[in-house]
Amino acid sequence: MTRYLGYRILSSLVVILGAATIIFVAIRAVPGDPALVVLGPSATPEQVAALRTEYGLDGSLLGQYMHFLARMATFDFGSSFRLGMPATQAISQAFTATLSLALAALCIALMIGFPLGILCALRPNGWSDRIISSLSMTGQALPSFWVGIMLVMIFSRMLRILPSGGAETPEAILMPAVTLALPLLSIIVRLVRSGLLEVLGEGYVQTARAKGLREPRVVGRHALRNMLIPVVTVVGLELGGLLGGAVIVETVFAWPGLGRLLIDSIAARDYSVVQACVVVLVLGFVSINLIVDLLYGYLDPRVRVGS
Amino acid sequence: MITRPADTLLSVDSLAVRFGGNEDAFLAVEDVSFDLRAGETLSLLGESGSGKSVTAQAIMALLPRNAAITSGRIVFAGEDLVSLPRSRTRDLCGTRMGMVFQDPLTALNPVFTVGDQIAELFRVRQGLDRRAAWLAAAEVVDAVGIPDARRRLDAYPHQFSGGMRQRLVIAMAIALKPRLLIADEPTTALDVTVQAQIMELIRDLQRETGMSLLLITHDLGVVADVTDRVAVMYAGRIVETGPVRDVYDNPAHPYTRGLMSSIPSLEESPGLLAAIPGMPPNPKERPSGCPFHPRCAFARPVCSVERPALRAMGDRRKAACHFAEEVVRLDPVS
């Protein structure tokens, strides 16, 4: 187990290093000099040169790269050209905002998606199944910018019960979280439904019934645990996606998250913040994957490593 | 109403089970009747698709969602299970009737330890606490001949061999000392050497507890070894029933006779295996008259028109053939 964990952590580091390298090159391949962006078109060449020296952009590319890696090891990404503060400080707030949004969305999706999926599987092709299944298809098809704008129209403009954006009040998280949760919820409903239907046909479910166990226990204990594995995989991947892919929702609701920070920083050629954002996102993604893989072992004893 | 011996435990009477919806519905089991007395063993013998497993599922209330009992009664220990709500029948499962399934590889839940799965019976059904249930589970696992039972309770199903897993399934079925054990092809998925051990185990357990055994199988050898009486099923119906020796030595139904002569004999020259020509009928389009007539060597015109009833042949046998008296007098099959 320790060896497996060591191996997984090592390979995660390689992934992070690769991602850091790619973003380092990619952001510099985008036309536009950060110093020019900051100073504006009226800047003199001397001012530009001075700023480039200040930000450490005057050395060779390889030198900058080595410097970037060396500092990254201590989680230091330099200071932001745009915001005038260390990049780590800039992203730590944004990361907290994004993480709380993603977790809120995940909670909503799980708490609603699971019961609905189970309800569908218990009476396949019954009326509740038909309604829920078609609603979940719709939910997945609706673009989140549209859902977001509709929610704002209804709850902020017409009913005036929720703020249309920002993160100043606790209830401000509700609409962005619901918008973000909707596609995930739809996936979970259909995943739980099909997974449970498959598992309910298995021999051990018959055995559980032959033991005289009540149906809630047969489904809730014997069947559910076996269909968690595919669900955990997808939920893990989706949660990783939620971290980085919330850009649209964050924009619609002016949510001060990582996605919005990343987009703004790219526009401003704010190298340090872009690099910091990407590394943090990749770190989050890799950690979630590792957690999912470790969960497999817990959920399914057949894939337990080293036992 | 036929009078039954006082110690009749299970009495199936004119059972019919329908599968499927309106357009493509068919009867998987039709007019099946048999009795099982306390401590007795009855085999339901038949090919796959003959309705024998469906009969077992009907008794245990384990029929799939698209199947339903359309007529008949299943009287178990004085209660008609057909008229009981499913949840009440479920209460009898495990405590009064136990079931052993065909495939031990899928019959155990892969994500729980075997101890967990067996102890669950004692905890949920008998209200024992965790520790007492665990001890009871160890006792049962020991009783089905798994060495080092107490330590093995912590293992998962995939850490056992096929034969050991079937022992565990049996342990679960008999844990609460049911009066009826239904074994649905308990040895089919196992190696030949293990098959004998499993049947031996079932017989020993039956001898110790005095439970009745309903054995569902297509294995003629298994039937001969363990059974008092046999009921041969074909196309959803019982075509012949009687004491094993009589039915084996002097079949009264041509289908049974065909089955018997398909057993390869060591004495005779190893030539071609005798096989019944043709295939069992599709349950959705069964032949008119006697369902066996297209494959029957003794068929006469009446057979394609009139379905033979299951009628008594002497006091302990029954056969559903127009010419049963002729068939039974034929030379014994080798």
UniProtKB/TrEMBL annotation, chain A:
Parts of the chain that traverse the membrane: 7-27, 101-122, 142-161, 173-192, 227-253, 273-299
Annotated keywords: Cell membrane, Membrane, Transmembrane, Transmembrane helix, Transport
UniProt xrefs under InterPro entries: BPD_transp_1_N, MetI-like, MetI-like_sf
Claim: Cell membrane is one of the keywords in the record: yes
Major location (coarse): membrane
Top-level lineage group: Bacteria
Similarity annotation: Belongs to the binding-protein-dependent transport system permease family.
UniProt protein name: ABC transporter permease
Organism of derivation: Microvirga puerhi
UniProtKB/TrEMBL annotation, chain B:
Record keywords: ATP-binding, Cell membrane, Membrane, Nucleotide-binding, Transport
Main location: membrane
PROSITE patterns: ABC_TRANSPORTER_1, ABC_TRANSPORTER_2
Residue stretches making up the ABC transporter domain: 10-260
A Pfam family of this chain: oligo_HPY
Family indicated by similarity: Belongs to the ABC transporter superfamily.
Protein name per the record: ABC transporter ATP-binding protein
